[in-house]
Design goal:
Layout lengths: L1 E5 L14 H10 L6 H20 L4 H11 L2 E6 L12 H14 L18 H11 L3 H21 L10 H16 L3 H14 L14 H21 L15 H4 L8 E5 L24 H11 L8 E8 L1 H7 L15 H4 L3 H11 L10 H4 L2 H7 L2 E5 L1 H8 L10 E7 L4 E6 L14 H12 L5 H12 L32
Parallel strand pairs: 4-5
Antiparallel strand pairs: 1-3, 4-6, 6-7
Helix pairs in contact: 1-7, 1-8, 2-4, 2-18, 2-19, 3-4, 4-5, 4-9, 5-6, 5-7, 5-9, 6-7, 7-8, 7-9, 8-9, 11-14, 14-16
């Protein structure tokens, strides 16, 4: 990996495009280096993972709304929409919109945390939709997904958005555009312009993840993916973009991030170096913010040792800066302690999550967030006894570049009314690559079967898994089969007259 220094340049000091970050990213995408077998295998895992969480959310309000909007844009030989028959096709940007929203709704797919947050699997819906519409092979799709994951991970490693209250989809627009460019084997210049346009159009604030978190949290990444597709289309037709988008005098860095004195370092593969970043990412076993994954597993373990939760006086979670300030009491969000809060808010409240996981010894993507469950008096009492505090040790581990040191856990201190204490800690979730039970192909398939049970038929489940496992060998006319079909009677809202479309 090469480390690239990124800083702001005044307009009077010309920065050649070959020295700009967006150009270097485009060069990575244009590099025809083969995708390695272990990367290929993980891409298959994540395609299965995305499909499982998308179908589990197929009838939730936000995915249903996105689907209705997409179905208003049919296109012969277009892209498929989750839940719909494989022979029904729609415009790629709208299919990506619907599928991306379904994937993101439950906060249950893969993650990468470094200088910022990300869900790299959000790259899959837009790249897959374009692949289906443009008649790509499975091999080309794999190439595009490897590039999309690479750019996403590298940007998240080097540039922090959240400290400036910018939502992490600002890294997704460029990565999706780059992945599409890599898949279509576009010239470096076209990919360069696409990356810049995609960044320019996908900068938004983190209010979407603050206060009363709404359904927009599910729409945000699909919005970025849709805009990335449109950016690539324009640039393929010869249009340009604001440039240099990262280093310019009035650029994103200059006015939205660290400013004119900024100095970022972004790692990128060198020429001929394989794109392996997907292997640094990790999926979720539990439907909740990733920084809660290890704490849920830890709550299960600690809860077995407690016979009466009302005997607890206080619970202190010693954790990283990110966990404390984003999903902990350091966020100073009263909504995170509110029994009437939305599901989107509750899955960003480690206080709520830990309380329920401690009491139940289990976590369910629907039942654990049910309004009745959140309002249970004994849970509310326990929930309000929990607080977080930053521990420099956990912050340091969170930011470590050593994958064997990097951690997203905490030390938990449970103090009882009689003065006794129960302490335990966990660095990474059981499903993490360095956890007690790392996710392998069998776990991804089991997650798919569990989440789609009762929604799709066994034959359809088997058909999709068989197709996904052949991904690198799929022919262009088979790529449309990389979709999960739900019986029509079980799909709610395939049309309405409430909107404009």
């Amino acid at each position: 990996m090469k480390k690239h220094k990124v800083r702001v340049y005044p307009s009077k000091k010309h920065l050649p495009r070959e020295k700009q970050l967006a150009w270097k990213m485009a060069e990575v995408c244009a590099d025809k280096v083969p995708v390695e077998k272990d990367v290929e295998a993980m891409i298959i895992n994540r395609v299965i993972d995305n499909a499982s969480v998308a179908i589990a959310s197929v009838n939730r309000h936000a995915p249903a709304t996105a689907r209705v909007q997409a179905l208003a844009h049919p296109r012969k030989n277009g892209a498929t929409v989750f839940g719909m028959p494989n022979n029904q096709r729609f415009h790629a940007e709208w299919a990506a919109w619907a599928n991306g929203t379904a994937v993101r709704e439950l906060d249950f797919h893969d993650t990468y945390l470094a200088a910022d947050y990300s869900h790299p699997g959000d790259n899959i819906p837009p790249i897959l939709a374009v692949a289906q519409q443009t008649g790509q092979t499975g091999k080309n799709l794999v190439r595009g997904l490897a590039a999309g994951y690479e750019l996403q991970v590298d940007l998240v490693t080097g540039i922090c958005l959240h400290e400036h209250k910018i939502d992490h989809i600002a890294h997704l627009g460029p990565s999706a555009a780059g992945g599409i460019g890599a898949m279509l084997k576009l010239p470096t210049d076209t990919i360069y312009q696409s990356i810049q346009q995609a960044l320019h159009t996908t900068v938004s604030t983190r209010q979407s993840r603050k206060g009363e978190i709404s359904s927009w949290k599910a729409f945000a990444p699909s919005h970025a993916g849709k805009l990335a597709i449109e950016a690539v289309d324009r640039c393929m037709r010869g249009e340009g973009a604001p440039s240099p988008i990262y280093e310019g005098e009035d650029s994103v860095i200059a006015w939205i991030l660290d400013g004119p004195t900024a100095d970022y370092t972004v790692p990128l593969p060198g020429a001929g170096e394989p794109k392996r970043a997907i292997l640094e990412t990790y999926t979720k076993e539990h439907s909740a913010e990733y920084q809660s994954q290890a704490l849920i597993d830890l709550a299960f373990r600690m809860g077995e040792k407690i016979d009466d939760f009302d005997k607890i006086k206080e619970v202190v979670i010693h954790t990283s800066h990110h966990t404390h300030y984003v999903i902990g009491t350091g966020a100073n969000d009263p909504q995170k302690m509110d029994p009437k809060a939305s599901r989107e808010t509750l899955d960003h409240s480690i206080m709520y999550i830990f309380a329920v996981a401690l009491q139940d010894g289990a976590w369910h993507h629907v039942k654990s967030y049910a309004p009745k469950r959140a309002a249970r008096p004994d849970t509310v009492r326990l929930w309000h006894k929990i607080r977080t505090t930053e521990d420099p040790k956990w912050t340091e581990r969170y930011h470590s570049r050593d994958p064997k040191v990097k951690a997203f856990g905490a030390r938990i201190e449970i103090i009882f009314k009689d003065g006794t204490q129960l302490e335990d800690e966990m660095a990474v979730a059981n499903a993490h690559p360095y956890g007690a039970r790392p996710f392998e192909r069998e776990h991804y398939i089991n997650k798919f079967m569990t989440l789609t049970d009762g929604i799709i038929t066994k034959n359809e489940a088997d058909r999709f898994i068989e197709t996904a496992e052949r991904l690198p060998k799929l022919k262009a006319d088979e790529l449309g089969d990389l979709n999960v079909q739900v019986p029509a009677a079980k799909v709610k809202r395939i049309a309405d007259k409430k909107g404009i479309f």
